[in-house]
Design goal:
The chain contains 7 helices and 13 strands. The protein is an alpha+beta fold. The structure holds glutamine (GLN). The site of glutamine (GLN) has 16 residues, from strand 6 and helix 6.
Length: about 250
């Protein structure tokens, strides 16, 4: 069911996040440990977004398994960033496999990822979709639950919601409309990362000047902490705060 991660802190190479750790995102793509709700590997594409200096994020997305991309190892070794969001995808049955369906989804400074599934898709959330501007629906990156979730979050951000409220409000609305959905969302602007834990695993590691959020810990470092279900995490390089998602 997809695996995602976010890093904020001193610049590191993408390789240090994607390839080097013993349980790196690449390893999690073919040997995940905690895939709740189905799926065995995350082979239906991947995406990496990073912030080069102060500019808008750059994305590299593909429909291929992350382990089979011939360009990625060199690209990852040569690319250094202080803010990164990356994901590997296990497509929900019936959803298309193409690069546009792979996270991160993006607008302006924002990068977004979803780990999970919307139950009863698409009928269960037809009412929520209908409340969006039609242009947003016509320009979805892909006809998938994750792309619609991004449109719902983005709509709230555009209306001025802070990122915490945009995620929490989207999770509440979708959970009401589609009970049993798994809604682990991850959003960053390169300075702060916000994540929800609703149906899937998430662990966090704060080291004082860097913070990592990941579906599964990347290594055995004792600083990793699992975030309980039904919670929301707000993280900056200086540390993190966890609070109940609320009802
Ligand atoms: N349901 C989403 C998709 O198919 C996310 C999948 C996941 O978490 N495995 O794109």
């Amino acid at each position: 069911m997809c695996r995602h991660l976010a890093y904020l802190g001193p610049p590191v190479s993408l390789r240090a996040l994607l390839f080097d750790p013993p349980h790196s995102l690449v390893r999690q793509s073919w040997a995940p440990r905690d895939m709740r709700g189905g799926g065995t590997v995350n082979a239906d594409g991947f995406g990496v977004g990073w912030y080069p200096g102060d500019g808008a994020p750059v994305r590299y997305r593909s429909a291929q398994p992350i382990w089979s991309d011939p360009a990625l190892p060199d690209l990852a070794a040569a690319t250094v960033a202080g803010a990164v969001l990356a994901a590997v995808r296990s497509a929900t049955v019936g959803m298309p496999v193409h690069a546009g369906a792979a996270a991160p989804f993006a607008e302006g400074a924002w990068l977004f990822s979803h780990n999970g599934v919307v139950r009863g898709w698409p009928d269960s959330v037809a009412g929520l979709a209908a409340a969006l501007p039609v242009q947003d629906l016509l320009t979805l990156d892909a006809p998938t639950d994750s792309a619609l979730l991004w449109a719902l979050v983005r709509h709230r951000l555009r209306a001025g919601a802070d990122p915490t409220e945009a995620l929490a409000d989207t999770v509440r609305a979708v959970a009401d409309a589609a009970p049993g959905s798994r809604l682990n969302l991850l959003l960053t602007d390169g300075r702060t990362a916000v994540a929800t834990v609703a149906g899937h695993a998430l662990s966090v590691r704060a080291d004082g000047d860097a913070v990592l959020l990941a579906s599964e810990p990347l290594d055995d470092h004792p600083a990793w902490r699992p975030v309980p279900d039904g919670h929301l995490v707000v993280a900056t390089p200086a540390g993190l705060r966890t609070s109940p998602l609320g009802g």
